[in-house]
Every structure is written in C-alpha cells, then in structure tokens.
Write a structure and sequence with these properties.
Layout lengths: L5 H15 L5 H10 L4 H32 L2
Length: about 70
Amino acid sequence: MKLEDPALIKTDEQIDWLLSRSNVSPWLKNALTAARGRDPVELLNDLGILDCVLRTRCNAQVRSALETLEGGN
C-alpha cells in the first residue's frame, strides 16, 4: 500500500483519535503508537498471538469470577 492509500489515511485518523482520548488505556495507546512503525506481516502475526493468549486468559478470568458468584448464592 502506498502512503496515500485511503485505508491508511483512515486508520491513521482512527489511531490519532484513540490516542487523543483520555479514557483509552496507556497500554493500548503504547501498542497503537508502536504499531505504526512495525512491519505489517510481523504485526499481524503478533496480533494473532495476542488474540489467542489474551482471549483465553480473559475468558478464564470471567468464567472464574462467574463461578465464584454462583458459588456465593
């Protein structure tokens, strides 16, 4: 993709908007800032790993919390 690609322009605008928000976590802001300079193929690979590992972890945390709540009733 060339720099003038409308999709790149749009996503850069979205990233800028997110970076300007006070309610966006520092973790996400750091990730978005770092992503701009990354090789897109490497970034997609890392996103796949993050999605798999963190989704599994979050689901386990939610499941554990629900089991705790259900056990307390």
